[in-house]
Amino acid sequence: MLKVVGFITSIFLIITIFLRMPQESSGLSSFANKSDLLGSPSSAERSLNLLTTFGIFIYLAIALQLNFSR
Hints:
about 70 residues, mainly alpha
């Protein structure tokens, strides 16, 4: 069960990191800006920062728990 949550958390982190691409590149960030998917740029950046930080802490906690359980 913990491995599944860890896998989902890692996929979530990969997605949020791709959404945090620099504004100069023409990747997912230009799509997010054109479609107003994430709201205003400053609000979206703040939200993604919080989500990424939260996801990293969750991932580290799961990784430590799995490491100590062996």
